[in-house]
């Protein structure tokens, strides 16, 4: 939802492995793993021209690392962690899009819709008046998701039982993460309004985040070193984020794509071949990000909404 960091030493793979948080400098390492968001290079968004016609689909994809697909072979833009097998590419192929511009970039937040992200141009600059379809997957980095999970991992090492991370964000009866989600809502609304202003004929799909941890709240400390009680708390915050995204989509009469429900049972705690979220850097994807199967699921959910 998972968020900026320095690239790992592993060629073409933004971020580092979560397992490295078990050693000193855990916070910096997990931040890199979750962000998967090295500063983008000068390469522009990927675009594929196609056929023409009155009913042709002209598709633009916007979003962060959960949309770009860091670490998934084949990477088309390593700086932005963009894969040819991410869900935008699968949607474009499934629709036979006449044109497809993938502006997604790891580390993006709502500010990067209208402002440059290092050398990458504002993502909304990819929109055209004749754009007919837009997907938007954004919001996690506005919460500083990487920073949240970094703190949770560090506290989980010190206090493995209970919910020390939840306690640290709810001191004196406050809900710091809930407040961040609430403050992100108007930013999402502003992005959606800008999309409609630039591409008034476009159908807009707001894409939620998949299940990172078990939906039943169970812990998997041998795989992810969080405190046992923080697993269900992070799950609840992710659901709160997705709920906000759905509400903002509805307010703009846009469509919300539920990536969470289909991914239940395929979280980072599951074994290889079952999980759709990688708990560390693997050959399948960057750590704490969806692998190709996860992107396939999100693409299927999006395509299903387009056929209703």
Helical content class = 25-40%
Biggest sheet details? 6 strands, mixed
Strand arrangement, largest sheet? Answer: 1-5-2-6-7-8
Derived from helix and strand composition plus strand pairing, the structural class reads alpha/beta
The name CATH uses for the topology is: Rossmann fold
Count of spatially separate domains: 1
Q: Would you list the SSEs in sequence order as H and E?
A: HEEHEEHEEHHHEHEHEEH
Separation, N- and C-terminal Cα atoms = 27 Å
Could you name the ranges where pLDDT drops below 50 across 5 or more consecutive residues? 1-39, 48-52
* Percent in strands: 5-15%
Q: Helical region count?
A: 9
At CATH level 2, the architecture is: 3-Layer(aba) Sandwich
What is the C-level CATH assignment? Alpha Beta
Rg from Cα = 18 Å
Annotated CATH homologous superfamily: SGNH hydrolase
Q: Let me know the average pLDDT.
A: 87
Q: Indicate the overall shape.
A: globular
Q: What is the number of beta strands?
A: 10
GO molecular function: triacylglycerol lipase activity
Organism: Streptomyces sp. NBC_00148
Disulfide bonds: 80-105, 152-165
Domain SGNH hydrolase-type esterase: 61-296
């Amino acid at each position: 939802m998972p968020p900026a960091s320095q690239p790992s030493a592993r060629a073409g793979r933004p971020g580092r492995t979560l397992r490295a948080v078990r050693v000193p400098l855990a916070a910096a390492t997990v931040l890199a793993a979750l962000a998967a968001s090295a500063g983008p290079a000068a390469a522009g968004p990927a675009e594929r021209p196609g056929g023409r016609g009155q009913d042709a689909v002209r598709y633009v994809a916007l979003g962060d690392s959960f949309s770009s697909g860091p670490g998934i072979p084949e990477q088309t833009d390593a700086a932005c962690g963009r894969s040819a097998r991410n869900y935008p590419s699968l949607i474009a192929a499934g629709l036979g899009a006449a044109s497809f511009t993938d502006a997604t970039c790891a580390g993006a937040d709502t500010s990067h819709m209208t402002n440059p992200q290092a050398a990458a141009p504002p993502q909304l600059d990819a929109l055209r008046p004749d754009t007919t379809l837009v997907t938007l997957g954004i919001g996690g980095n506005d919460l500083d998701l990487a920073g949240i999970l970094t703190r949770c991992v560090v506290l989980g090492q010190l206090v493995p039982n209970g919910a020390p991370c939840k306690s640290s964000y709810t001191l004196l009866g406050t809900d710091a993460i809930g407040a961040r989600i609430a403050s992100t809502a108007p930013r999402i609304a502003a992005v959606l309004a800008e999309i409609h202003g630039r591409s008034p004929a476009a159908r807009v799909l707001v894409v939620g985040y998949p299940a990172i941890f078990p939906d039943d709240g169970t812990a998997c400390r041998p795989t992810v070193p969080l405190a046992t009680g923080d697993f269900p708390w992070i799950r609840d915050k992710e659901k709160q984020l997705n709920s906000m995204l759905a509400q903002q989509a509805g307010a703009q009469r846009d469509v919300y794509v539920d990536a969470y429900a289909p991914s239940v049972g395929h979280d980072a705690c599951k074994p290889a071949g079952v999980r759709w979220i990688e708990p560390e850097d693997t050959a399948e994807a960057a750590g704490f990000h969806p692998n190709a199967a996860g992107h396939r699921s999100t693409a299927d959910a999006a395509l299903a909404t387009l056929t209703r």
